[in-house]
């Protein structure tokens, strides 16, 4: 049965999509059969693994709203072992349509039941808000990974997502765990970046991943080529950092049995 990890933070531009794409590819590179689910109407995770959103017949929208079997919408990617459940702009409509639906928070969880057996990992890329798409993702997940940009307001943003996680644990998904806090866009030459990373590690010593993602221009270039970083430039510091993150997650899994 797949372990489902949701990548969430209500702030935009903190590295959710970059982390979802590159963690998913790094897990696939470690021979774990992996599914990446794009839950953001912007569809950046879909284009990030080279999928042309123009020609798609079925997407995660149809899974949530028309309750189609997700197998019908899942695509294989150029990267061996990595599949994608894509999203396009129409997913923004699902957010509104879900409001009136029965068991509206459970749509993704119910849909994943049919396919969990086929994967080792399922990685969900969330939109930059705490809306029903994010709630569906947190409800479907075993754990949540929180990317945190090393900048001044990082701590405040963190308490907001931690509150939401607590609410979901109370009402919808008591088993939801925190996979970890991932420091992203770290720049060792920048004082704020160093201070924030130290502060987060002091407050959350167990939760913060040892792996840390540096600010790396290769990571920002890769999406325009439709490639995960390990296909685009395996020698980059960005690639090494995401491979390190995947290793840390796999190690933890191993030690938990
Ligand atoms: P989110 O999904 O949280 O909105 P993204 O992953 O899309 O954030 O990242 C926001 C922008 O920053 C993108 O243009 C992305 O390419 C870039 N970016 C993300 N992580 C890094 C990094 N470690 N170094 C440099 N650029 C990055
Ligand atoms: Mg994103």
From TrEMBL:
Gene3D superfamilies: P-loop containing nucleotide triphosphate hydrolases. Residues 2-178 form the AAA domain. It comes from the Bacteria. InterPro entries: AAA_dom, DNA_Partitioning_ATPase, P-loop_NTPase. Pfam families: AAA_31 (PF13614). This is ParA family protein. It comes from Geomobilimonas luticola. The lineage of its organism: Bacteria, Pseudomonadati, Thermodesulfobacteriota, Desulfuromonadia, Geobacterales.
